[in-house]
Structure formats: structure tokens, C-alpha cells
Amino acid sequence: MVGSILTWAFVACAGFGLSVVASRWAVEHAAKLAYGLSVPPFILGVVFFAVGTDVPEIANSVMSSLAGHGDLNVGDSVGSVIVQITLVLGILPFAGGKFAVGRFRAAIVPLLTLLALAFGILLVADGRLSRLDGVLLALGWVAATMVAWRYAPPNSEAELPVPDHHKALHAFVAFASLLLVAAGAGAAVKAMVELSTRAGIPEYLISFFGSSVGTSLPELVVTIVALRQGQRDIALGDIFGACLIDSTLSIGAGPLVAPTAVTASLAVRGAGVAIGAVLLAGLILWGRRRHDRLSGAILLAMYGAAYLLM
């Protein structure tokens, strides 16, 4: 019994590890295709980098739904919102130093995420995610992205460098990396199902507290690298954008392919905790206009509190 649990735990870690490494390759090479575009760095982070670093969650959503385990989809997606807005964002000032945060950046995308989470509660309250729910969530992400883009703040950082001209190579590596992400996510989903069965723990909780950390590692890596390179708008945009995607597109991708049942009580409670985390984090950054070790410590404490609330 213990041996099988350890084996499946290893498979889960290996699967998520492959997804994280491959997603980093995908983001790196896809980013080289996007450099030089006339897009504000904050919006580039919200849209482009956030989609890239959220590939593991989206892949997990699809694989979980195909396997008929909707709780793994919703638990990982909603749990990732909490991990990114508290744990990942809280680590940033310790890893990359303090930085200023404009009030627009601390307000617009978190506000859109709050609306998306509230809408998600309405959709999961009946215990099922239908294909129509998936369409509405995907359209919600498109609409929210258009609003964020429309009211984007002016550039506050230097233009991103224009890369070399090996476009075909970058496109091939990015596509191949995404295939590896899907393979790793598929293995991880299978392992998470086996773990929940053998350990007697609800799938939602395993994905909420376990897989969400693993699938959020790309955001941690990308934001720290961006911050150390002086691209704070990309770092913030990636975190906020990933939270928005996890609240909409990530949850909706699965039922778009295969409608599934979910545990309504746990899904609603998890979304409620995520709403509280996003609201408090946004208010802290909006009020202080900077992110330093004090605000970082508060966010890390909020991540710990999520365990008690769930």
C-alpha cells in the first residue's frame, strides 16, 4: 500500500516536472516570436506570457475532463489562483527585490479575476460543468482580456529587444514543448487519481493543494527571471494574467472537450477562498503602491491560511 502510494507520488512529481520544464521551453521560444511587437509589457505579461506559463493547468484541465475527473480540473485551476496570488507573488520581493506597483496594475486584472471567480461559482453550483459552461468561461477570458488591453497603462519600461530571425526553429521548439507539457500532464492526472483512491483523500483537495503548486512553477520561474531583468510589468502581468486564465480559460478548456461532474460544495468553497485571496492581495498592492518584503510576508501568510480555510 505504502509502496504503491510512493510510486504514484513519484509519477505525479515526474509528470508535473516534465510539464514545468517543457512549459519553460515553450515560453522561452514563443516569447522570441513575440518580442518586438508594439504591445505594452504589462499586457504582454497578462496575455502572452500568462497563456504560456498556464499551459500545464490548461493541459491538466483537458486531461482531467477526458478522464471524467472534473474535481482535478477545478481544484488545480482554483488552487493555482491562490498559489499564484499569494505564494508566487509573495516570494517575488524576496527573490528579486522590492518594486513599485501602479494602482491600475493592482486593480484592473484582479478585479476582472474576482468577477470571473464569482461567475464560476454560479456555473459549478449545480455540480456539473457542461460544454456551454466551457464556452462561457472561454468567452469570459476573451472579454476580460479585451478590457485589460483597452485600458492598459502606458509603457513604463524599455522596449523589449527584437530577437534573431530563426522564426521557424522557435515555432517548432515551442510546439514540440507543448506536446511534452500535455504528456506530462496526462501522466500526472493518472497519478493523482490513483493517489486519491489509495489514500482516501478527495480528488479536489489533492489537486487544490498538491498539483496547483506543481503547475504554478512556470509562473514562479518566469516572473523571477523577468523581475531580475528589470521587467516588472511582465512579472506582474504574468501573475495577474495567469490568475485570470485559471479562473476562466483553464477551467473551461476541459468541459469544452468533455463535460464532467464536480463536487459543488468543495468547488464553491475553493472559489470563495480564492476570491478572498485575490481581493486582499489587490487591496494591499493598490493601497501601498509597492511590493516589498512586508507585503510579501503578508501574502505568504495568506497562503498558509488557505489550508485552514479549506
Write a compact overview of the structure shown.
By secondary structure, the chain is mostly helical.
Q: Which structural class best describes the helix and strand composition?
A: mainly alpha
* CATH H-level homologous superfamily name: NCX, central ion-binding region
pLDDT < 50 stretches: none
CATH architecture: Up-down Bundle
The average pLDDT value, as a whole number, equals 81
User: What is the class in the CATH system?
Assistant: Mainly Alpha
What's the CATH topology label? A middle domain of Talin 1
Strand content: under 5%
What does this structure look like?
The chain contains 13 helices and 4 strands. Helix 4 packs antiparallel against helix 11 (249-257). The two termini are 27 Å apart. The chain is mainly α. The model has no long low-confidence stretch (mean pLDDT 81). The protein has a single domain (41-156, 202-309), classed as A middle domain of Talin 1. The protein is 81% helix and 3% strand.
Short key terms for the protein model shown above:
single chain, 310 residues, mainly alpha, A middle domain of Talin 1, two-stranded antiparallel sheet, two-stranded antiparallel ribbon, 13 helices, 4 strands, globular
